[in-house]
Structure formats: structure tokens, C-alpha cells
Design goal:
Number of strands: 2
Protein name: Transcriptional regulator
InterPro entries: HTH_MarR-typ, MarR/SlyA-like, WH-like_DNA-bd_sf, WH_DNA-bd_sf
Radius of gyration: 18 Å
CATH superfamily of the largest domain: Winged helix-like DNA-binding domain superfamily/Winged helix DNA-binding domain
Strand order of the largest sheet: 1-2
Helix content: 55-70%
Order of helices and strands: HHHHEEHHH
Distance between the termini: 31 Å
Structural class: mainly alpha
Largest sheet: 2 strands, antiparallel
Strand content: 5-15%
Number of domains: 3
Shape: globular
GO molecular function, one term: DNA-binding transcription factor activity
Length: about 150
């Protein structure tokens, strides 16, 4: 297989993997009335630490649009997993905060979630994981550069 064929294979495989991971993640979280994208939103909010992020900041972190994130926020608001507050300095900005319900929900799942991730990657060696991490980071950096130049 030449380089271009490998690049095409990887490109297509990433789409396939993303779809299959979402389907499997949704099945995994279904009993708790959660989707993988909702899970990803809560994880993204956690990345900001004690500083509640805005809707736009979370959309950027997730690599998604503001509208898509707003739809996820609406669902998580209905479930009581997050709150939305107006920013003190900019009334147009909405800040997202995880609720106590959300924190206790995720704390109770730590071991189960760890097993899910471990099972997903169980057939990869440490060396393969290192190569994948390095390659995905480079690909993400390339895409960021493409977006800056667009």
C-alpha cells in the first residue's frame, strides 16, 4: 500500500471509528439516559477547572458548533446535570457549570468507565498506544493550522 492509499485508509477509518465509538458509547450509557456526546460535553466542562466556561469556549474545546453544543446543553439542563448562568462581565455570555447531581453521577461510575476504556484499547500494546497518541496529536495540530489559514 502506498502512502496516499494509507492516508485514505486512515482518513476513512477515523470516520468509521468515530461512528462506531459513538454507537458503542451510546449503548454503554443508555441505561443512565446519557449519550456519548453529552458525556463529552461534561468532560469538556471539567477541563476548565473552577472557571466555568462559556458555551463558545466549550464548543471550541469540543471542535463543534455553538448550535450543536447548545442542543446538548438543553438536554443536560433538562436532566439536571448542568446549570447555565449569565456572565457577570458580559450578559451575552452563558457560563456552564456542572451540578452536584452531575458530579455524584460521574463519581459513582469511575470504575465502570475505566473498564469500558480499558476494554476498548485492550488489544493495543503500549508502543502502539504511544504511536497513536503521537500521530493523532500531529494530525490535530495540522487541522488546527488549516483552520487558522482558512
Amino acid at each position: 500500500m502506498n502512502r496516499l492509499d494509507k492516508e485514505k485508509f486512515i482518513f476513512g477509518s477515523l470516520f468509521l471509528l468515530a461512528n462506531k465509538m459513538q454507537v458503542n458509547g451510546d449503548k454503554y450509557l443508555a441505561e443512565d439516559d446519557m449519550t456519548l456526546r453529552q458525556w463529552f460535553l461534561t468532560i469538556s466542562i471539567l477541563q476548565f477547572g473552577d472557571h466555568p466556561p462559556t458555551l463558545n469556549e466549550v464548543a471550541e474545546k469540543m471542535g463543534s458548533t455553538r448550535q450543536n453544543v447548545k442542543q446538548l446543553v438543553t438536554k443536560l439542563l433538562e436532566k439536571g446535570f448542568i446549570t447555565v448562568e449569565k456572565d457577570a462581565a458580559d450578559a451575552r455570555a452563558m457560563r456552564l457549570k456542572l451540578t452536584d447531581k452531575s458530579e455524584s453521577f460521574w463519581e459513582g461510575r469511575e470504575e465502570k468507565d475505566r473498564r469500558f476504556i480499558t476494554d476498548l484499547f485492550k488489544d493495543l500494546t503500549n508502543s502502539e498506544l504511544n504511536v497513536m497518541c503521537e500521530g493523532l496529536n500531529k494530525l490535530l495540530d495540522t487541522i488546527k493550522g488549516m483552520n487558522r489559514n482558512a
